[in-house]
Amino acid sequence: METMANKIAIEKAKSSKIHDVDFDNLSFGSVYSDHMLVCDYKNGKWNTPKVVPYQPITLDPSAKIFHYGQSIFEGMKAYKDENGKVWLFRPEENCKRLNKSAQRLAIPEIPEAYFMEGLNTLIDLESEWIPQSPGSSLYIRPFVFASGNGFHASPADEYKFIIACAPSGSYFSGKVKVLIEETYSRAANGGVGYAKAGGNYAGQFYPTKLAADKGYQQVIWTDDNTHEFIEEAGAMNVFVRINDTLMTAPTSDRILDGITRKSILDIAKDEGIKTEVRKISVHELVEAAENGSLKEMFGAGTAAVVSPISGFGYHGKDYDLPDLEESYASLLKKRITDIQYNRAEDKFGWRHEVIQ
Ligand SMILES: *Cc1c(COP(=O)(O)O)cnc(C)c1O
């Protein structure tokens, strides 16, 4: 990684909002820390990022983000251990993925040093904002959007890269009941499903609302061509346990390459759990649910880490999953969070200390 020629300037907030925040009752991503990182792309290059007080952004009504949706983001967390040290989890993977998304949406790629040094500077400055109660963390939202103007349908000539932070409590929503989606699709071959593009989420809200109206908290996306193979659980990757084998769908144009997903696969192998990365058909799920070999299903992603599924609906019928005392979901969640919070050895080299 190239290092930065210029140091990141910090403009401090006049006063801190931290004393107004009820750290014992944090919801997810709804209060923001005092500062944010801002980096502007102008005249064909990214300028040196700077840290400024968290504040609204002013844009021209013709800014291309509003019209053509050039918008991508990442989701990550900072964790504080018992000794007050601050850790990130595989941050270079978020940087790589942001640039993979950028390429697909015709957004100029962010220099890795701007991302990594910008992140370190911001998180170090905001370290008091990292809650320490069990399961809580500082949620970090890097995002890039087209700030350049014009109704002409072409890539913008100006962009903003921002990192904002939200102290967040533990993301526990209980088990969710899911609907296997057969009408709508999240992504298509050759499309943008593998990118963390804002529009992918916009397209999910309506089908998810229809599922919610029928009593399901989440949708299981299937392949857009046949709707016969499961792909993701809402905005998380999906895992299935049949007997003692843990499986997940292979990444593709349509499936986001989740960092939690690949970490879970590595940890499961390390635990001696048999894993398979392959297409999983709905037919196979129904059969396994009927003969009792379907033991678990769960979503995997940064926010909830692991989100257990209680059952699924398909063709008007509900299939319930057993309530296991010793689930892979809880074992894998514990192992991954023990690494994230520096409670266990990190044999994979995933933990990244924030330099103070
Ligand atoms: C962000 C995201 C995931 C999870 O990725 P992580 O890197 O594990 O947080 C999975 N699927 C979709 C569609 C996503 O947007």
Automatic annotation (TrEMBL):
Its EC number is 2.6.1.42. This is Branched-chain-amino-acid aminotransferase. It comes from Allomuricauda ruestringensis (strain DSM 13258 / CIP 107369 / LMG 19739 / B1) (Muricauda ruestringensis). Acts on leucine, isoleucine and valine. It is an enzyme of class 2 (transferase). SUPFAM superfamilies: D-aminoacid aminotransferase-like PLP-dependent enzymes (SSF56752). The modification N6-(pyridoxal phosphate)lysine is found at K196. Pfam families: Aminotran_4. It catalyses: L-leucine + 2-oxoglutarate = 4-methyl-2-oxopentanoate + L-glutamate; L-valine + 2-oxoglutarate = 3-methyl-2-oxobutanoate + L-glutamate; L-isoleucine + 2-oxoglutarate = (S)-3-methyl-2-oxopentanoate + L-glutamate. NCBIfam families: ilvE_II, PRK13357.1. Transmembrane segments: none annotated. One of its GO terms (biological process) is isoleucine biosynthetic process. Its cofactor is pyridoxal 5'-phosphate. InterPro entries: Aminotrans_IV, Aminotrans_IV_CS, Aminotransferase-like, B_amino_transII, BCAT-like_C, BCAT-like_N, BCAT_family. Pathway: Amino-acid biosynthesis; L-isoleucine biosynthesis; L-isoleucine from 2-oxobutanoate: step 4/4; Amino-acid biosynthesis; L-valine biosynthesis; L-valine from pyruvate: step 4/4; Amino-acid biosynthesis; L-leucine biosynthesis; L-leucine from 3-methyl-2-oxobutanoate: step 4/4. Belongs to the class-IV pyridoxal-phosphate-dependent aminotransferase family. One of its GO terms (molecular function) is L-isoleucine-2-oxoglutarate transaminase activity. Keywords: Amino-acid biosynthesis, Aminotransferase, Branched-chain amino acid biosynthesis, Pyridoxal phosphate, Transferase.
